[in-house]
Amino acid sequence: MPINTDDPGVKTVLDNMETIVASEGGSLDLISLNENQLTVKYNKGTNE
User: Fold this and answer.
1) pTM for this structure?
2) One digit per residue, pLDDT tens: the chain, 48 residues?
3) Which residues, at least 6 apart from 47, have a Cβ–Cβ distance to it below 8 Å?
4) Contact between 30 and 43 (Cβ < 8 Å)
């Protein structure tokens, strides 16, 4: 699932993490994003 945010710093971190977990078949889902906290769900890949 693509992660949508307007904050370029957050987007960079999430894109980099998505690349890392995708290499093992995993993915990240953005659950919530507010001023002080980012919550993501890690979906385990099939290669792990």
Assistant:
1) 0.65
2) 455 678 888 889 888 999 999 988 999 988 888 878 889 999 998 875
3) 24, 25
4) no
